[in-house]
Structures are given as structure tokens and as C-alpha cells.
Design goal:
four-stranded mixed sheet; 7 helices; globular; single chain; alpha+beta
């Protein structure tokens, strides 16, 4: 069998259209969640961008306090929906519906954070000693969080059910057997209440991390 070195694009127009739709959607999302509003004309009268054509990509992302970090969280929220190595079926993996269902009806703050642990650091230590203080440093208050979405990535050595168990135990994100059954029943019978969690966690395999953990969070405040 011939070695396949990459996907073959047979419908160039559809590919181009789909790629443009993805890029347009990311641009729109960045504009909807921006922390600052970059003006087309600077205070000293210099044109920054043309309003008719819109901002460049780097200008759209520069409207954040921590632009690289926001982009990392966005990439991980997308990655967890398509990662080919899911650890189970009741996680955030391929279950974007959890996020849609928890979306507030009115205006809200989208808190974001992404940190990488030390090598072999336990998740409980990482979350308590690094992530939690960092969230406070960013000005996010735990009592205001209505829903949290966590994507934990690590390398081959740690990507096992023990990894999932530790994170689920720390974040209280896992579904019990009864909750899992309730979740399945609610998808069949609309009269059955769907079990809810404050935190939903998903898991990704990223070999480059080794034994480190990258934790990316989106929180609805």
C-alpha cells in the first residue's frame, strides 16, 4: 500500500469555503469576547486599520490582556472536541453540548486561564498551588463561577485512567453511575431532568508535554 503523507483535497472550492468559515468564526468570537476595543484611529491620529476591511488577525487577538493565553484556551476547547484519543464518553470530549447548555441567557464574563505544571506534579497540587492562586491574580472570584470547562492535556506516560480519576476527584467533574444513567435517560425522554455539574472536564493527549499537565479553563461568570 502506498504511503499516505497527507489528505487529498478533491473539492478545492468547498475546502476554501470551509477554511474561510472557520477563520471568520474565530475572528467573530475574538471580537465578541475582546477585553479592549482597538480603535481604527490612534489618539495621535494615525490610522491603525481600515474599518471597511476590518482588523488583521493579530490586531483582533491583541484586544486581550493575555492574548496568547486566550488563544491557547480556545485551541484546547476546540481540540477536546476532536481529539482522537478520548478516555470515555461522559467527558467534555466531543460533548460541546455541555457548554451550550450551561451558556447564560444574559451577558456574562468569560474567564480564561491556561497553565502548564511542573514535570510529574500531581494535579491536585497543580490546581491548588498554581491554578487557583492564578485565577485570583487574574481577578476571577470562585464564588461567581456558574460553570467551568477544563481541558487537561498530558503526554503518553500519564494519559491513563488514573490521570482522569485524579482530575475528576479534584474538580468534582465526573458523573456517577446514577448520573450517567440519568444523562442517557434524559436524551431519550425529555421529561427526565438532565444531571448538571458545575465543572465539566475533558482530556487530550499531547506527547510534547511529557509528564507535565497543561490545564486550560473557560469559566462562565
Amino acid at each position: 500500500m502506498d504511503k499516505i503523507i497527507g489528505p487529498n483535497v478533491t473539492d478545492t472550492k468547498q475546502f476554501s469555503k470551509a477554511l474561510q468559515n472557520v477563520m471568520d468564526a474565530v475572528y467573530t468570537l475574538l471580537e465578541l469576547t475582546r477585553e479592549y476595543d482597538l480603535k481604527p484611529i490612534s489618539e495621535d491620529g494615525v490610522m491603525v486599520y481600515c474599518e471597511e476591511s476590518g482588523k488583521c488577525g493579530f490586531q483582533a487577538s491583541s484586544q486581550y490582556e493575555r492574548p496568547s493565553e486566550f488563544l491557547q484556551t480556545l485551541l484546547d476547547m476546540i481540540r477536546v472536541q476532536y481529539d482522537p484519543n478520548p478516555m470515555g464518553t461522559f467527558f467534555l470530549n466531543s460533548n460541546i453540548g455541555f457548554m451550550y447548555e450551561e451558556m447564560p441567557e444574559g451577558p456574562f464574563q468569560l474567564a480564561y486561564a491556561s497553565l502548564v505544571s511542573r514535570e510529574d506534579q500531581s494535579f491536585s497540587s497543580f490546581f491548588a498551588n498554581d491554578m487557583s492562586p492564578y485565577l485570583e491574580q487574574c481577578g476571577y472570584e470562585a464564588e461567581n463561577i456558574t460553570a467551568m470547562f477544563a481541558v487537561a492535556s498530558t503526554g503518553h506516560e500519564r494519559y491513563k485512567m488514573k490521570f482522569v480519576s485524579e482530575i475528576s476527584g479534584t474538580l468534582k467533574s465526573g458523573f456517577s453511575v446514577d448520573e450517567a444513567l440519568g444523562l442517557m435517560a434524559s436524551s431519550i425522554d425529555s421529561s427526565v431532568s438532565k444531571p448538571k455539574k458545575q465543572t465539566y472536564a475533558g482530556y487530550c493527549l499531547d506527547p510534547e508535554l511529557g509528564t507535565r499537565i497543561r490545564l486550560s479553563l473557560w469559566c462562565f461568570n
